[in-house]
Amino acid sequence: MRDTTQHAVRLLERAQSGDPAGALAEAETVLRAVTGDLVDGPACMHFVRVVAHIAQTDPRGAIAAVEPMLVAAVREGSGGWQACALASRAWQRLRLGEVDAAEHDLDGVLRDLVSAEMLAAGETDPVAAVNSRVAVGIGYYELRLYELVEPQFRGAYEMSAADCGSNGNRAMWLLNLAEMHLRWALELYQVHRADEAESHTAEAERHAVRAAAEVSGDDASVWRDNALLYAACARADRHDPAGAAADIERYTARLRERDFTPEALALSRPFHAVALLRSGHPEAAVDVLTAAVELLPPDADWLVSASTHRTRAVLMAHLGSRDTTSTLAYGDSLAAALWRQRLNTLHAARTMHDLAVLRAQHEQVARAADLDPLTGIANRRAFDRAVELAAGRPGEIAVLLVDTDNFKTINDTRGHAAGDEALRAIAAALAGQVAPGDLIARLGGDEFAALLAGADTTAAVGVASRMVRAVRDIPDCIATVSVGIALAPGAAVRSAVHRADIAMYRVKRHGGDGIEVDPVPALRPAA
Questions:
Q1: CA separation (Å) from 129 to 8, 79, 95, 122, 494?
Q2: 352-376 as b/e: b if 16+ CB within 10 A
Q3: Where is 400: in which H helix or E strand?
Q4: 371-444-433 Cα angle (round to 5)
């Protein structure tokens, strides 16, 4: 599976570096190789499909690809890949909502992101863990919830660094952090919170400098220039504005020659103008922003567009223009409204997250109440409730009652600590023989029980036989088990529990270490 995951990592990089169609085709080939049906393939390859559709600006295709990915991730028990699916669906729904009001569903987006964040927190596989945190971070980024973005990108960087580079270029997450702090600063400047804005440009510089030192791979020189551009932008409103202006000009020119992403270049222009103004070149600053306004496409990022126009208006006012007053007043009121909207969304996200945490804690407490603290399997309370539920359902149920032989000898000769260790080993041996949907429980003392839904006599005998052999094979343990079996329709499951108990005691009277099916005479597994 690790090889498949690393294959997916390579395809994700390919999908995001200019060949999404090729990555998509190769991922679908891998997915169909399992059974011929895409759904039966691994979740990591489904994520390649999702990302390839995103890279092709196909939000509906990405959302459709999320559904089979969720099925695969649940099948694999992977919270990380589930988180990737939910978070990707969330921010693709945001993109759809921007162009189609009927698709706008902020509550649904937040629910997906909060659920994804909870799932990502428990992921241990490094590749799934990193990708899930990045996906959640991007979702919150789209909502401008910078406070929630930062821990996701920081976690992705730390995990990538610890995973010795198998998660791709870890410096990318530092670049993401630098860009996030620059945008956060721009938004704070819009609402006249300059001191806070400067604290974020300081953070942006710290992350950008680290990114420049850590970039690697075939495109390292391009990403290093991008990092140094962000570091220069971060100095524009603080120390060395003249040096910042020169560096911004130098690195934008180098990146422009390589057809680098226009978003990064557009983000730099308001900072370039501020650096020029603060180093005594206001006319040059106006020229930069005048050109920047002309270069803005109709669908330009709203924050970069607003910052470009507002910074130009501030500069014109600084130079004595009286025509900028109304423009600045309108821009300030719009920025204040957007900031309030952001805070309202942040409050909603945090409230939803707190409720999800509380719900998870309650569920954990409820699960703990159903678990035997010594062995970690279900307890008598859980077994009794399962019997009650089975009594109301159709279909046949097999009941196995299991009693430990020679357990008193262990306690008497080796002590209670050894007895507890033996019970844990016996519980693990028994639990290893039942299917995921079946129940194994400790009823108390050295007695256990199992409920096998839909099992016939042959299947129940097979499980019981494996249980007997598994306990025999426990190293340095003299205990064996006696297993009684009874089958009944769900409505009669309580009588089956009683009959299985009688059958178990018949095994014990014959010396134990075997099985018996009620009312069939004793059966014993092969030696």
A1: 14, 9, 24, 8, 45
A2: bbeeeeeeeeeeeeeeeebbbeebe
A3: strand 396-405
A4: 65
Helices marked H in 20-78 — which ranges? 20-32, 43-55, 59-76
279's tokens = 């180093």
CA–chain centroid gap for 55, Å, is 20
Q: Residue 163: pLDDT band by 50, 70, 90 thresholds?
A: low
pLDDT at 164 over 70: no
CB atoms under 10 Å from CB of 325, counted, come to: 11
Secondary structure (H, E, C), 111-179: HHHHHHHHHHHCCCCHHHHHHHHHHHHHHHHHCCCHHHHHHHHHHHHHHHHHCCCCCCCCHHHHHHHHH
Q: Write out the H or E segment, with its range, that includes residue 182.
A: helix 171-190
Nearest to 271 by CA among 298, 301, 238, 320: 238
* Closest alpha carbon to 77 in 28, 126, 29, 124: 124
Edge-to-edge strand order for the sheet containing 439-444? Answer: 439-444, 447-453, 396-405, 480-489, 514-517
Of 390, 380, 381, the closest CA to residue 496 belongs to 390
Residues 273, 267: Cα–Cα separation, whole Å: 11
Question: Which tokens is 406 given?
Answer: 């020679």
Both tokens assigned to 225: 């220039």
- Give this prediction's pTM: 0.73
Residues of the chain with pLDDT > 70, as a percent, come to 96
Walk me through the domains of the chain, giving residue ranges and CATH numbers. 169-323 (1.25.40), 380-517 (3.30.70.270)
Instruction: Give the number of other CB atoms < 10 A from CB of residue 336.
Output: 13
Write out pLDDT tens, residues 406-444: 999 999 999 999 999 999 999 999 999 998 889 999 999
Among left, alpha and beta (phi > 0; psi -120 to 50; other), residue 193 is beta
Please tell me the least confidently modeled range out of 4-8, 47-51, 154-158, 329-333: 329-333
